[in-house]
Amino acid sequence: MLPSPSSPSPARWFRTLRRTKSTEQSSKLSLSVCTELLRKSREALASGRTLREEFRLSQLEALVRMLVENEDEFVDVLHKDLHKPRFETVLSELILVKNEALFAVNNLKKWMNPEYVARSLVTSLDECFVVSEPLGVVLIIGSWSSPVQLNLVPLVGAVAAGNCVILKPSEISSHTTELLQRLIPSYLDTECYHVISGGPSDLTDLLELKFDHIFYTGSRATGQQVMQAAARSLTPVTLVLGGKNPCYVDRECDVGIAAQRIAWARFHNAGQSDVAPDFVLCHTDVQARLILALRSCLLQFYGPEPRHSASFGRLVNAELFTHVRDLVLASGKVAVGGEMDEAEKYIAPTVLTDVLESDPAMQQEIRGPVLPIMTVYSADEAINYIRRKEKPLCLYVFSSDRKVISNMMTCTSSGSFCANDSVLQSMMVVLPFGGVGASGMGSYHGRCSFNTFSHRKSCVLRNTRVECVTYLRYPPYEDRSLSLMMWASSLSRRSQAWCQIL
Fold first, then answer.
1. Which helix (H) or strand (E) holds 158?
2. 127-134: strand order across its sheet
3. Are 279 and 415 in contact (CB under 8 A)?
4. CA distance 181 to 166
């Protein structure tokens, strides 16, 4: 797993962006500011304003307005940070967030309503239901690779659920962070929602503050730091962590379509993605055809010189460039691409073949425009390979054989699964998205985001007129009373569940 481009160490991650004599003063000031913002957020939460449906709707609608009215600025800062084309910014960042916010607006009343459970004979005069209440003040730590949607999609869920939020975008995508820090106070409630940049000199210092939930997107190494710090105060966490996302290409598939959809996902945003295919397990019978198809796709997508294409991005910083370059030089052989320019932080879309399982490109998350291809002789071999590794965030398979797809889906475990396409399952507002095992815990998007930032409280409102039945539970205990209690409260395979609080 590739750490955050700056380092697996949170302390060094912050320090690499502060190399002046004022570092110490800035860090201390930021920590005190965070403490004060946390206090103000708790006061705002205690006022009860976030409990009202009309308040939540107004904040979600303001978030949509912020994206619409400042679209050109978002395009500009993402181009500065990642050389991201306008098309990618609008499609994979802005529209994704707007869809999440509008979906929440359209469904908020239903989500906030109590959910009544089925009543039985015993509870026929009572009310049994579940209410969703805000967790409190939550911390959202966003990643740099898609810095708008990875910060604002969780924010939508937290706002919809009625929480106050402290948002910490990554300093690596500094221009986007500065824009969010400027715009959010202009559109959202300034006492309930805060954006911090810089922060303490060590991420651990920030995590020492007591939040009611922490939502983190990023590397596994930093995810472990977040979870360890949260455990000390029993703070619940949602972790969406990167890793090695496998993609199996079967002998029975449309190789041309597979190549297009794999290439689009892998080289989108210059490969800087947690959800793209990280490597291909290719059936040996179709490897040659797949490489030819990938070469053709890349020529079609980016032309003969991708560095001059307005549709191809750049790596976010020099450290990530060095990491990806070293992986290319130490793994397999270059079949397509391979050109590099350190000054531009440019690496051409690259396909590697003759890759071994022990090669660095198969051991570490790449986070760049490089696609290693390792051959297998069957779908079963691919399944066995995937099962030997940590559970990935995403798993992809391209096949026209429904049995192959079914076996791949049921015989492996992953945060998400997609057949005959890539990334799509991570962009759908109606599907929960998150990791499992080493790729994270918890999920979000749509209703699932609302649930993630809510406590689902079980409620029973009893009627006092049923004491003629409930008196059976009181001492002194008798066998006859026990028999009646068992009859009234026990489950059977065909009956509804009884409420067992007689």
1. helix 149-160
2. 115-116, 127-134, 454-461
3. no
4. 11
Residue for token pair 């089925």: 118
| pLDDT tens-place string over residues 355-387 | 999 999 999 999 999 999 999 999 999 999 999
Tell me the C-alpha distance between 139 and 211, whole Å.
7
- Note if the bond before 476 is cis, omega within 30 degrees: yes
Cα–Cα distance measured from residue 230 to residue 55, given in angstroms and rounded to the nearest whole number? 29
Reading the block at residue 312, the tokens are: 């191809």
What pLDDT, on a 0 to 100 scale, did the predictor assign at position 250? Answer: 97
Residues shown for the chain = 502
> Given this model, what pLDDT does residue 398 score?
98
Give the β-pairing of 394-398 and 416-419: parallel
Task: Give CA–CA dist 252/375, Å, rounded.
Answer: 15
DSSP state of 171: S
Q: What pLDDT is recorded for position 22?
A: 36
**CA-CA-CA-CA dihedral for 407, 409, 413, 415, to nearest 10:** 170
Rg of the chain taking only CA atoms, in angstroms: 26
**Low-confidence residues in the chain, pLDDT < 70:** 1-30, 121, 198-202, 466, 468-469, 491-502
What pLDDT was estimated at residue 120?
Answer: 73
Whether residue 2 contacts residue 242, with contact meaning beta carbons closer than 8 Å, is answered with yes
345 phi, psi to nearest 5 deg: 55, 40
Residue 32: predicted pLDDT: 79
End-to-end distance of the chain based on CA atoms, in angstroms? 52
What sign does the dihedral 102-103-106-107 (CA atoms) show? Answer: negative
Q: What is the side-by-side strand order in the sheet with 370-376?
A: 333-336, 350-353, 370-376, 279-283, 246-249, 394-398, 416-419
* Closest by CA position to 144, among listed 163, 168, 126: 168
Instruction: For residue range 213-265, list pLDDT tens digits in order.
Output: 999 999 998 999 999 999 999 999 999 998 899 999 999 999 999 999 999 99
What is residue 199's DSSP assignment? -
Q: What is the 3-state secondary structure (H, E, C) of 84-146?
A: CCHHHHHHHHHHHHHHHHHHHHHHHHHHHCCEECCCCCCCCCCEEEEEEEECCEEEEECCCCC
Distance CA 77, CA 90 (A): 13
- The Cα 226–Cα 296 span in angstroms is 43
Provide the pLDDT for residue 12. 42
Nearest to 112 by CA among 497, 461, 453, 463: 453
Number of Cβ within 10 Å of residue 212's Cβ equals: 20
Helix, strand or coil for residue 370?
A: strand
Q: Do 355 and 364 contact (CB within 8 A), yes or no?
A: no
